[in-house]
Every structure is written in C-alpha cells, then in structure tokens.
C-alpha cells in the first residue's frame, strides 16, 4: 500500500509541476542578498559597430568590440537569470589596446570603444528599471605609462618607483603614490565624478589588496559621504592571498576571496571530494564575494570537464553551494552558458551566446528565485549539521525560518538523518520537489542520489492530501476501466 501511495504521489508531483509557493517577508536588498554578474566589457557583446575603430578581432590582445550598448541589449536576460548587480570592467579612456581598462590615460573620459557618457547613463537608468544595480571597477593603483602625469616634472612624486605588477598588462603601467595627498585628492575627485555623472551604484576597487590601507579608508569614507548606500567592493590581484589575510577595517564591504574560490573549485572539480572541506575554509571568516571564475583564471567548466564531469550536473552542485550559503555569489560572463577556456586568450573570448544550455538556464532561474524568495538563504546563520562520505547538509536559520542545504558530491547514494527538527514538521524540497517526514526513529532521513543537491525549508507537516490522492486514484481507475472496455470491444469486432 505504501508503494502505491508513493507512486501516486509521484504522479501528483509530475502533474502539478514545481511551483515555489511559500512567501517570505520582504527585506531590503543588500549585498548578502545580491547576485553579481561580472562583465569584461570589451569581450562581452558588440551592440554598436560604429565605435569599433580599434577593433582587431584577429588579435586576442586588442579590442574585440564589446560595448555599453551590448550590455543594454542583454538587460532582460540578467533579469531572467536573477542577477541583481552588474560589475563592469573600467570604462575610462585607456591607451591603445587597453581593452581591460587598466591602462588609464584619462580618469574623466569614457573610452570611445565602449560608447559615450550618455550610453552609460542609459544603461544605469534601464538597469534600475529592472531593479538591477550597476557597479564599475575603478583603478586606483596604476596609470598607463602614456598618462600625461608620467612626464610632468611637477608630478614625479605622484609616482612610485616600485616594480610594475607581474601581470599580462603590467608592463604598460606605473604605480601611483597613494600616500601623496594630491594623488589621493585626484582619485577621490575622479571617482566622485563618475558616481555623480552616471548614477552608478558603487565601485569595485581594482587590486585593492595592493593599495595603501590609509588611502582605502579615506577613499571609502569619501564615497559614503556621497551615498551611504554605495557598494564598495575589493578586487584582489594576489590569487594566493588567504582569507584571513584580506585587509580589514578599510570600509570595503566585500572582497574577492581567492582561497575560498580555490576550495570550491578543488571540491567540485571531480566527484568524491567532501563538501565539508569548503565549510572548513569558510568557518570563522568574513565571507565576501563567492566565485569560481574570473578573467584571469582557467574557466571552472574547463577544469571539471577535464575530469569527465557533466556541465549541468556540476554547475547545479556549485550554484547550489554559491547561492544558498553565506557570501555574495559572483559569476563571470559566460559561466552561465557555460563557456570553456584554459589560456587567458580563451578565457577572455567574446561571449558565445548561442552555446547556452536551456536546462542550465532553467536551473539558474530556479536557484536565484529561491535566494530572492527566502531571506534565510542570504542572511541566516550557517552551520554544518551532518556529513556522510562526499555528502553534507548545512543548516541556515533566520527570522523564525529554517532551511537545510543538502549536497552530495559523491558517486554513490548517501543519506543523513537529522534529529534537531520537531516531529510535527516536514522538510519541503524546492529543487526536486522532495518531501521528508519524520521516521519511526524520530529522525528525518535525507537521502540524495549521486551528484545531486536539494534545498529544504522546514514547514508544518500537512500530511497527505487524501482528497486529491483519491481524485487521482479515481481518474486512474476510470482510465484503466476505459482501456479494458475498449480492448474488449476491439476483440468482439475482430471476431
């Protein structure tokens, strides 16, 4: 009888789909509830061919044609995928071939390859209509060797003699002396200009881990005086920096966290790795921007595909962890499709929009909807409550709401029994419509098949809907009887 009921319940689930029906109290949108989409503007989407003067598509180190209009053209897509904040690479005028934005020649002008100030204002306005914020990466440590101040004899104390950064673009920059009050004043004034002229919602400070802490404190204070709600993020140039070594007390709200990224990539790059290894990396630290891809590292899809992992399966596991656990998830352009690439040239290829996977897109929609609908996934306390093999279950609690995130990164089915849930409750799953009720032992046994994840909200146990089940059984019986009658009539005709 139990098997029959289980079968009928499965039929019911298939017939009614998988709606998200529980409402949550509205909360202010703040960084913990955001989903960031990071864009390397020149390598994203060419929306206006009229500004392609420097474009040389045969040269991967030259401009490729991405621009502001190309981003505007994709705003509906961002809304569909649930992104709440766009982070754009630097937009100010650069030296020739400075597609990345780090060869600044004029802090007060828009690079003509990207469009105009009016284009940026239009982007911000239309993004805001969709409740999407716009943040710009801002370079404070370097200017191009061709910047006018480099040859100005009266500004030689604006420049440090330190060695240029060891990066693909580092041979064409000089370092600014941020301890010089005039440099500090110039950088703050230029940032204020961009905020006031464009209406952007914040800045991500490029290579902020290399900046003077004193400068960062003064800079962030000045920006907050313009807008107390401004987003101030920190980019990290040193990918070997540990979470605990990220600068503190600078006024930057969220930092890139390379060590956390390394833990996530290492765990999910192949099946069988324990998910609780990531928790150990997060435990006791201030969680910043949670990411697995950026413009300077091997694409995550490339990493796990070399180990034979399926893109939809692996990204479903990773997105569940990124979106449902503490921190602000940050995706690099093309990851949602997903794109592959090992070298910098491959990683920074123009986005291949026609290569998307509809099933992966649907998962993006669902997981982002969950994060938006339930504040517990953004603001709740976070703890590891059970592990078995490569499966772990995490608990989040916030404002009288409790959720469990179960992830099995293993190659076998695993189960974990939870004992801290009231027996009059049930666990409602929102990724695969799984429901877990109390067992004879008083526990809630959560089982997951290999390489799968489920997200549960604790609810009142409403029991089986016997009226609806009876209706389905009646329909099923009528259907079978109908088939039998038709079959008998067919036999009589054949006789």
Automatic annotation (TrEMBL):
Pfam families: Alpha-amylase (PF00128), Alpha-amylase_C_2 (PF22026). GO terms for molecular function: metal ion binding. Keywords: Membrane, Metal-binding, Signal, Transmembrane, Transmembrane helix. InterPro entries: Alpha-amylase-like_C, GH, GH13_cat_dom, Glyco_hydro_b. The chain crosses the membrane at residues 466-486. Its cofactor is Ca(2+). The keyword tRNA-binding does not apply. SMART domains: Aamy (SM00642). The keyword Membrane applies. GO terms for biological process: carbohydrate metabolic process. It comes from the Bacteria. This is Alpha-amylase. It comes from Oceanobacillus jordanicus.
